[in-house]
Write a structure and sequence with these properties.
The complex is a heterodimer.
Chain A: H1 12-20, E1 30-37, E2 44-51, H2 52-61, H3 73-85, E3 87-90, E4 100-107, E5 110-117, E6 124-129, E7 140-147, E8 150-157, E9 162-166
Parallel strand pairs in A: 1-7
Antiparallel strand pairs in A: 1-2, 2-5, 3-6, 4-5, 6-9, 7-8
Chain B: E1 20-24, E2 83-93, E3 98-108, E4 115-121, H1 132-135, E5 149-150, E6 159-160, H2 162-173, E7 179-185, E8 192-196, E9 199-208, E10 213-223, H3 227-230, E11 235-239, E12 248-253, E13 259-260, E14 263-264, E15 268-269, E16 285-294, E17 298-301, E18 304-305, H4 308-311, H5 314-323, E19 330-333, H6 335-344, E20 349-359, E21 364-367, E22 371-378, E23 386-393, H7 398-419, E24 427-432, E25 437-440, E26 443-446, E27 451-452, E28 458-459, H8 462-477, H9 479-484, H10 494-511, H11 525-529, H12 546-566, H13 568-581, H14 589-600, H15 605-612, E29 620-630, H16 635-648, H17 653-660, H18 666-669, H19 676-679, H20 687-699, H21 702-714, E30 717-725, E31 733-739, E32 744-749, E33 760-767, E34 773-778, E35 793-794, H22 802-809, H23 821-824
Parallel strand pairs in B: 2-16, 23-24, 24-26
Antiparallel strand pairs in B: 1-29, 2-3, 3-10, 4-9, 4-13, 5-6, 7-10, 8-9, 11-12, 12-21, 14-15, 16-20, 17-21, 18-20, 19-22, 22-23, 25-26, 27-28, 29-30, 30-33, 31-32, 31-34, 34-35
Classes of the chains: A alpha+beta, B alpha+beta.
């Protein structure tokens, strides 16, 4: 079941959380997700980069764990699972692309989550990423699709969580 | 004069260093011509060819210097600014969450022009349904602070968020915006005025002449917004779980009075209506404010408390006094006293009286929940020798605030003042409430709090600690930009947020360099490589990605300017000059650009163009490295080299396979008829060659001879490096040269190398004998926000992707920094649970 089932209306608990966490006036809520067609491996690699402090809030506010991004693998796994459950990609025929989990890590101020897949033949990717947007309405998940040295981008927000990116 | 050539045709007069052996180490890259937009298309266009001048002078687009702001970027000899002084008497109705007030405003017209009317900003009206902001809010657009809507898509209906519902319900249940009445002049004569959206125009019976003043009065009232419902940068926060009879609120009061709009030499009235994002700019002035609040409230405000005897106890005053020289913050109101306050309540009132000189705004906070601590700063100097740093926070702030809020204020002032000017205000305040981070003169609102646990304790994570320290430094830093250096946030967010983010990074690194503070160039790579961005020089309300555009990218740019391009000595001098020139004045972007250039003595127009006026990114590729060798021109030496080079080349595959098959060669079978050509190869030196060489030496002029002989003796290594500017943004080329002997050397090629060829350039580097080049790396320290490091290496290296590196290094382990150690350390030891084994 998606962890995102309650983003929108009629979700009392989440609704309160939305309100409580819109207060960070000077923190800019954004994450960067890179989808790289890696020529070396032949894989389509996905790197999700989220601010660790944002991740902490998600863990404590949405995921009902007993501490903010605790050290144990399970807490980080929960956050990683949360991120991935809000992320989906389909090919130009809208056939879902199933990614394989690679791992996750903390580096400096960022929390990274990694996935990869052998890419299907397609001339476009339909991408959705709604992570953190129920917590912060201003959250923007910035997508960079990199293939053959070219970058195609999209800004996914709660009001516009999907984008179709044509591949070069 | 040509020094080296890649062909062997030379004349005697081109100096000896001519014949060149060119050895191509590898040739991997392709060259692409970059077609990028020209920021100056409106004026001068390159209408033929592909040449693009990245070094066009910015004067073509900057406003013409004048007597108000000059070509050096400093206030001109006729610089002027208006002054607006306020007397405000306000009453806070805690129960109704309502403010009623009267103001007397003295407007001094220092401009050379007569003013027939005054424009006022009524930010509380921005939340009324008929405001420009509300009417112009696009459904499904980027949205407003705190709530959002979503267009229908495929089979999904249109949606609004719970926060949006709550906002709408708050609007429906409350009358929003100012009620203004009794607008009169000093004599009590009514003044004509209109209110249009979030602005108000007062028409004057007689124009205010240059050098004259005008006084008006008005009464106003409004219902205070609930910050958690509306996200208004101010408002009240309710605490329903407090022990008090009616529970408690924290009131953060900002944009809380009708404020006269700025009037400047370059924009006249700054009457661009508040849309919710582009923040504020006002005139400097003196404030005298009295606010009547519940008697058990503690009030924090811009300015100095004028009546401590009436609102503070003797004990509180004594504690404040002892804080002046204390090493650590002293409690003026302790946690226990605040807890007692919030559990009682009162119907009595007190009036607090504050006065503030030469500030551009006034804000305050009031609550009975406040713990209050203070610590004096002995700044010294003439501007403001003593400052009182103070924090006001509820029990929810807990030890996090007790330990770090006031100390972070002290640290911010210490660092920022070093880069700008002495902090000029008598107090600096940090208040915890429902606003995550917001700044006003002398007072800031900051949001981080502790985590409550069921045992009643409160702890905080390392992440939240960093967030509090960071946000306090940032918001206190806003005193410098834009509260004192009074840039217009409504138009150019980067002028305060960008400069402030740059400085908060410096302050953070001086707090604890192990904490990942600030903006590193590498942090903006993902943003800058994308094709969804707008130039930094974009009006605040039109920016697509506010954080990276107005905060991170300009901060990274200034870091690069300081650390890479100008160096700390030049940059710090220029930056301080800008701050001091515009202290308590109103700068524009052109004043910043001009000052940094003028004070550093470096033409930076290319930098402003690339980083602030375009959406180009940095991607410099090293494509090829040629090794060149100086010919001695001595045929006995050079011909032998040529022969060896020929020998070093791979043999013909045909010849090799013939050998393998044992084919007999005709020349070997017929040696009896071999001639001179069979015995001497094409590299054979004759006396004709030697004579030519000695004649050439004889013909050299004295200077040429000295140069030639020295070059031959030194026998240096010559390398030709080819670069491509893949990203469009011209930048210095930072090189790390690694030699075969294991030594390394860093060199910087200035950005000006791109001035006549913005897409491709070549550079010769010369190294001493013995320093044979093994590899070259561009930007090895990731100092320039170069988006593609794969093409930064020559010979090319296989650069692992992030995921490849993750797999290779097996980094999938936990990070210990983000545990809630304070909480986890209290965990009781448990016996392991018995695992039921399958049978």
């Amino acid at each position: 079941m998606s962890l995102f089932k309650n983003i929108w209306p009629l979700c009392g608990v989440v609704g309160l959380l939305i309100v409580c966490n819109t207060l960070l006036a000077h923190q800019q809520k954004e994450a960067y997700i890179t989808l790289l067609f890696n020529k070396n491996t032949g894989n389509l690699e996905v790197s999700h980069r989220f601010l660790l402090h944002d991740a902490e809030h998600v863990v404590s506010a949405l995921l009902n764990t007993d501490g903010p991004l605790a050290t144990d693998q399970s807490a980080q796994q929960i956050f990683a699972t949360y991120l991935k459950s809000g992320f989906s990609v389909s090919d130009s025929d809208l056939k879902p692309i199933e990614f394989k989990d690679v791992g996750f890590e903390v580096e400096g101020k960022y929390f990274w989550v990694y996935q990869e897949v052998t890419p299907p033949e397609t001339n476009a990717l339909n991408i959705e990423h709604v992570a953190l947007q129920e917590l912060w309405p201003t959250q923007q998940n910035h997508i960079n699709v990199e293939k053959d040295g070219l970058v195609r981008s999209a800004r996914l927000s709660a009001s516009s969580p999907r984008a179709k990116i044509e591949l070069p | 004069m040509r020094v080296l050539s890649v062909n062997r045709n030379f004349s005697r007069n081109t100096v000896p260093v001519i014949g060149v052996l060119m050895k191509l180490i590898t040739t991997l890259s392709t060259v692409s011509l970059l077609l990028s937009s020209n920021a100056f298309a409106a004026g001068i266009n390159q209408t033929k060819g592909v040449f693009e001048d990245k070094f066009r002078q910015l004067e073509e687009v900057l406003p013409t210097p004048n007597d108000y702001r000059n070509a050096a970027g400093e206030p001109g000899k006729e610089y002027w600014q208006q002054q607006v002084d306020y007397e405000i008497r306000a009453v806070l109705d805690e129960v109704e969450r309502h403010i009623s007030a009267s103001q007397t405003v003295s407007y001094t017209n220092n401009s050379p022009y007569a003013l027939k009317y005054l424009w006022l900003q009524l930010e509380q009206n921005r939340f009324k349904p008929d405001s420009l902001a509300e009417r112009a809010d696009a459904f499904g657009g980027i949205g407003r602070r705190g709530s959002l809507s979503k267009l229908p898509e495929n089979d999904e209906p249109a949606r609004v968020s719970m926060a949006e519902l709550r906002r709408q319900q708050f609007y429906a249940d409350n009358e929003i915006g100012y009620t203004i009445s009794n607008v009169v002049d000093e004599t009590g004569t009514a003044l004509e005025y209109i209110i249009t959206g979030a602005q108000m125009r007062i028409d004057l019976p007689v124009a205010i002449q240059s050098g004259s003043s005008f006084v008006y009065k008005l009464d106003y009232e409004y219902n205070i917004l609930e910050e958690n419902a509306v996200s208004a940068r101010a408002g009240y926060e309710h605490f329903p779980d407090d022990a008090g009879k009616d529970s408690n609120d924290i009131f953060l009061m900002a944009q809380w009075f009708p404020r006269v709009a700025a009037y400047s030499d370059y924009e006249a009235w700054h009457n661009k209506e508040f849309l919710g994002r582009g923040e504020f700019t006002l005139e400097f002035g003196n404030y005298d404010v009295k606010m009547t609040v519940p008697a058990d409230h503690i009030v924090a405000a811009t300015g100095v408390l004028q009546n401590p005897d009436q609102v503070l106890t003797a004990t509180q005053q004594s504690r404040l006094d002892s804080a002046r020289d204390s090493e650590r913050p002293v409690f003026v109101v302790t946690a226990e006293e605040a807890l007692e306050n919030e559990s009682e309540g009162t119907t009595d009132t007190k009036t607090w009286h504050f006065s503030a000189a030469n500030v551009r705004d006034f804000a305050w906070a009031s609550s009975r929940k406040f713990i209050w601590d203070a610590k004096g700063i002995q700044q010294g100097g003439d501007i403001q020798p003593f400052i009182m740093a103070m924090s006001y926070y509820p029990k929810e702030g807990g030890d996090l605030w007790k330990n770090y809020s006031t100390e972070a204020i002290v640290h911010a002032i210490d660092v920022y003042s070093r880069f700008t000017f002495d902090y000029p205000y008598p107090v600096s305040i940090s208040v915890n409430g429902p606003v995550g981070g917001m700044e006003y003169p002398m007072i800031t609102f900051n949001g981080p709090r502790t985590i409550w646990h069921e045992d009643g304790s409160r702890t905080y994570t390392l992440g939240e600690k960093r967030f509090l320290i960071g946000v306090v430094i940032h918001e206190v830093g806003h005193n410098y930009f834009p509260m004192i250096v009074n840039s217009d946030e409504r138009q150019w967010t980067w002028m305060d947020e960008g400069l402030n983010s740059f400085l908060d990074g410096i302050a953070g690194r001086e707090w604890d360099p192990d904490i990942p503070w600030g903006v590193e160039p590498r942090d903006v790579v993902e943003y800058m490589k994308s094709n969804v961005q707008v130039p930094i020089m974009t009006q605040s309300d039109s920016i697509l990605k506010f954080g990276p555009n107005a905060y991170a990218k300009p901060a990274a740019a200034l870091n690069i300017l300081r650390e890479v391009i100008l160096g700390r000595e030049l940059f710090d001098f220029a930056f301080k000059e800008y701050a001091q020139r515009w202290m308590n004045k109103r700068p524009t972007p052109s004043d910043f650009f001009r000052t940094i250039e003028e004070a550093s003595g470096v033409d930076l127009d290319w930098f402003w163009q690339g980083w602030f006026y375009s959406t180009d990114h940095v991607d410099i590729s090293i494509d090829k490295v040629y090794q060149l060798r100086l010919d001695t021109l001595d045929p006995d030496i050079d011909s032998a080299r040529r022969r060896n080079e020929e020998i070093d080349r791979p043999n013909s595959l045909f010849v090799e396979r013939n050998k393998e098959e044992g084919r007999k060669l005709w020349v070997d079978l017929n040696r009896d008829i071999a001639d001179y050509h069979d015995e001497n190869d094409r590299f054979t030196v004759t006396n004709r060659d030697r004579n030519s060489y000695t004649q050439m030496l004889e013909d050299l002029g004295p200077m040429e001879r000295v140069a030639f002989e020295r070059a031959i003796e030194e026998d240096k290594n010559y390398y030709l490096l080819n670069f491509t500017n893949e990203g469009g943004l011209v930048m210095p080329i930072l090189l790390r040269l690694t030699y075969e002997n294991g030594m390394q050397e860093d060199r910087m090629i200035p950005a000006e190398i791109w001035r006549r060829s913005h897409a491709q350039v070549s550079k010769m580097i010369v190294t001493n004998k013995g320093h044979k080049l093994e590899s070259v790396e561009v930007d090895p320290g990731w100092e320039t926000a170069d988006v593609d490091i794969e093409n930064n290496h020559y010979p090319r290296k296989i650069i692992l992707s992030r995921i490849e590196a993750f797999k290779a290094e097996d980094r999938s382990k936990t990070d210990i920094e983000y545990r809630d150690l304070m909480h986890d350390s209290k965990t009781e030891l448990e016996e392991p649970k018995e695992k039921i084994q399958k049978k």
